[in-house]
Amino acid sequence: RPETELAIIGGLLHALLGKTGSRPHPDFKSQQQVIDFLIDEYKDLKLSGISKTSLEDKFSAANAYLSKKKN
Which of 9, 11, 21, 35 sits 20 to 30 Å CA-CA off 56? Predict the structure, then answer.
């Protein structure tokens, strides 16, 4: 389900960025750093959806979904 996918992606993104109440991840201080890491890490696999535009779109939708659920 798309909602589940967005919740998982958003939850992971928030955890990596330290937005879950715990201390920030030492390697990732921004969403862009996470995107850059994923692109670099998986570039050889040429996975569908692992592109700058795709990840920005997915992360944006996931952030919006989680924000809506929190309110």
Answer: 21
Summarised one tens digit per residue, pLDDT across range 21-47 is 655 555 678 889 888 877 877 777 776
Q: Which residue bears the tokens 């330290």?
A: 18
Q: Is 14 exposed, middle or buried (0-12, 13-18, 19+ CB in 10 A)?
A: middle
- Its pTM stands at 0.66
Q: Spell out the long-range contacts of 20-27 with Cβ–Cβ below 8 A and sequence spacing 24 or more.
A: none
The CA-CA-CA angle for residues 56, 60, 25, to 5°, reads 80
Categorise residue 46: left if φ over 0, alpha if ψ from -120 to 50, beta otherwise: left
φ, ψ dihedrals at 3, nearest 5°: -65, -40
